[in-house]
TrEMBL record:
Protein name, as recorded: DNA-directed DNA polymerase family A palm domain-containing protein
GO molecular function list: DNA binding; DNA-directed DNA polymerase activity
InterPro entries per UniProt: DNA-dir_DNA_pol_A_palm_dom (IPR001098), DNA/RNA_pol_sf (IPR043502)
GO biological process annotation, one example: DNA replication
Amino acid sequence: GINLLNLGGAGRAGLGTNPLITKMRQMLRVNDSKLLIADAAQIEARILAWFAGQQDMLEAFAEGRDIYSEFGSKLFAARLRKARKTDPPPLAKLFTIRRGFAKDTVLGAGYGLGVNRFYNNCLQNPGLRPMFDSGQYDRKFIEKLIYGYRNTYSMIPKFWKMCEKCFRLVTKYPHEVMRYAPEGSTVGPGDLLTFWNNGGTVNVQLPSGRVLYYPHAVIRKKKNDYDYDNQISYHHGPLWGGSLTENIVQAIARDLLVHWILKAEEFGLPVVLHIYDEILAVSSTIYAKDNLKTLMNIMSNGPEWADGLPLAAEGEISETYKK
């Protein structure tokens, strides 16, 4: 069978995009009206930078800069940008591959993606594998990507450690409450995150007010050579700072998505589908352009609890669902 979930795009690590996905998207269409397709731009990277207090990344997003190209330019010590239709094919391919590496690093390394896994993902991609087999890229190159990210955006690894520390402390000392907000945070009253233990279930309250629950939270002792000593764990398995960060960031992305959907419907835009950070609404043809602007404006603004989080959206009008 085919796993249609989260397949990588061209020039990306992973298995690459199966052409069937494009065909399946085109099956979703509207008649006598238009489909408004709006996508929250780099939403997880933005939320992560906001939580971690990674100010240079937040400023880049707020100014509308291409963070993937900027990071890639630093890694490759050469100017990088999105490929254009007017670029000669070899140049377009080079830009696409290099920016793809940078994008995958920014998106994956933010949750603690390691060298081995990233390297193996690249080897599984039929478009990238020949470049590794030929020696154009190798494991040392992947090390450069991962450690380049961690050094460039050093507040993010610190955030992993903070999440793990808070979780560990309230697990070990159930009567403690741990609160977190990055230095210089512009968030309103209260804290970005609050950790506490309720009868063995660690609770993590998000800035939206929603709570994540981790039942049967424990600190495990090492049982064999493959275990980590003092590993934090809960009902569904082991945890660490990177996995907690992923849970927290994706939960906030979901809260924002719901906020935008409700706002869109307040403005009379019927939402017919949502996929990850993407919203699809139906509009009459005559008002499609204005309604798309409205939807993108909604998705470029957050609720009060997301103060200081720079948001942006991209969108298009179509008769069928497409990327």
